[in-house]
Amino acid sequence: MTWTKQRLNNLFFFLGIAAVVVMLLTFDVSFVELWEHICHAGYWLVPIIGVWFIVYGLNALAWRAIILGNCKEEMVHRKLASHRFFWRIYRLTITGYALNYATPVGGLGGEPYRIMELSKDIDQQHATSSVILYAMMHFFAHFWFWFLSIFIYLGLVLIGDLPINTVIGTTLGIIVVFCLFFFYLFSQGYRKGLVKYVLGVVSRIPGLKRWTLKFWARHSESIQNIDQQIAALYSQDTKAFYKSLVLEYFSRVVQSSEVMFMLLLFGIDCGGGFDGLSLTFLHSILIVAFTTLFANLIGFLPMQIGVQEGGFVLSIAALGLSAALGIFVSIICRVREIIWILVGILLMKLK
Asked: pLDDT tens digit string along 242-275?
């Protein structure tokens, strides 16, 4: 079993390295232009890259809250609550996201790797349910981020900072309905479990029904146990549930700081002072919210190549800023992603 896990670890490692090489070779700008953008960012690259130490720390705390809420056995719980285990979760968080960024379809690499590694600390079923619960929470927090960003936009409209018209109002209304619909789906998944439901959906796909039935026949007891653990967190440990949700939500808020740093780099500070910086930060939240919504709607591309760039350009232009600034922000964010992917891949070999 250990030998098999080591082979899988090596497979994930080489997959990540290969993906980074492909990304570098398929950059939308030449290496000369890329270097010019990096030089333009200058020392601002330090806080832009460094803010993700905090973002990943919040992600790790959110995941650990779920793991602790999911594992109630006293001896195991004590081990999982230790500082040493937190740093292990922190490492797996960075590596998991690195694999997700580097592979098509988010979760194709990161979530299986997290399950494999976490099962060294807890049993396989709890490891699986904890990773699934965290992935659900990660997306659930996304929807809350998008939903609450609408009210930030409307608040800025009320003070005369941003425009509103029929097109914008209709778009915001569609996003509200979109988020409310998925809030309902998530509530169903948290109350009844998710794995069985997903298998039911997969079984309706032509050609997969037979495979789904065989999979269910072999693993029905494990699937039911995992779904029970998913439902138990929501119904029995609401403190862990909401703690994880709040931490995940604020990780998106902190993430918006990197866009604010880039706006400040271009001298965009809405007049300066506390009020100006506050407005700039709120604009940054809106830019990240729209871009991540756009990127997640087309999430099957590695690192959302082209999609993220388009999202930044559109969202920044919608706030009345230049498209050139959108291109700069997207390129520097891409550089930051590549750096953190390399960090995550290298951490796979850290014992």
From this structure: 999 999 999 999 999 999 998 888 888 877 788 8
Q: Which residues of the chain are under the pLDDT cut of 50? A: 1, 3, 300-304
Distance from C-alpha of 216 to C-alpha of 199, rounded to nearest angstrom: 8
**How is residue 163 written in tokens?**
């425009």
Q: Assess contact for 147 and 172: CB atoms under 8 A.
A: no
pLDDT at 3: 46
pTM score of the predicted model:
0.83
User: What is the DSSP secondary-structure string of 10-61?
Assistant: HHHHHHHHHHHHHHHHT-SS-HHHHHHHHHHHGGGHHHHHHHHHHHHHHHHH
Q: Which residues contact 152 (CB under 8 A, 6 or more apart)?
A: 282, 285, 286
Q: Are 336 and 258 in contact (CB under 8 A)?
A: yes
DSSP letters spanning 141-199: HHHHHHHHHHHHHHHHHHTTSS---HHHHHHHHHHHHHHHHHHHHHHHHHHH-SHHHHH
CA distance linking residue 10 with residue 193, whole number of Å? 32
At 63 the pLDDT is: 94
Smallest CA-to-CA distance from 61 within 113, 120, 138 is with 138
Phi-psi region of 266 (alpha: psi -120 to 50; beta: other; left: phi over 0): alpha
- Are the C-beta atoms of 304 and 273 separated by less than 8 Å? no
Q: Rounded distance, CA 50 to CA 46, Å?
A: 6
266 exposed, middle or buried (CB, 10 Å; 0-12, 13-18, 19+)? middle
